[in-house]
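So, can you check these tokens?
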Amino acid sequence: MSEPSQPTRELCVPDIGNASQIELLEWLVEPGERVTQGQELCELVTEKATFPLEAPLAGTVRQCLAAAGSLVKVGDALLVLELIE
């Protein structure tokens, strides 16, 4: 019998104001990496500022869903985080 899988959470681009364009500047983590709550995962940049996306909970990065340098919009999925229980 296989072990039950850990719960996952998809992290999305947050609402960061009236930005017409948001770029995923760079990833600060890689798939398989364990992260802590509050750890910066990537940097998002708009015409006016750079914003870090922080891990809401501790877990393991399972998959990065967008490439660094790509344009994203509010609500787009960026990363799958496997939660640590």
In short: The chain has a mean pLDDT of 92. The chain has one domain: 8-83. DSSP finds no helices and eight strands in the chain.
